[in-house]
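Batch job 17 of 40 flagged for manual review because the log was empty.
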Amino acid sequence: MVSKNYRDFRLQVARENGVINRKLSLVERSRLWLWIAGPQAALYFSAMVLASAAPVELMRGLVFPLAAAKYLWAGPYGVALALKADYRRFRIQ
């Protein structure tokens, strides 16, 4: 995520020693990914539980609202959580 140049924003990693760069180790990337993907996974598993108990007609009506919630709420919320998270050896800016 941090190695890509985005048009609208740029993510940088500030280390404990004050060095700012755009590189993360595999473990650090995994922790960051969990923060971003967590809300999306929670929404997905909630929909799966609802789908197992709800009638098919109801689920057909919820396809678009669930997809919209994924892109309009869960994605941005996950990024906000990742930016606010307390990491031991680095900070995302």
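Reviewer: the log was empty due to a logging misconfiguration, but the result itself is present. The longest strand covers residues 13-15. Unflagging and moving on to job 18.
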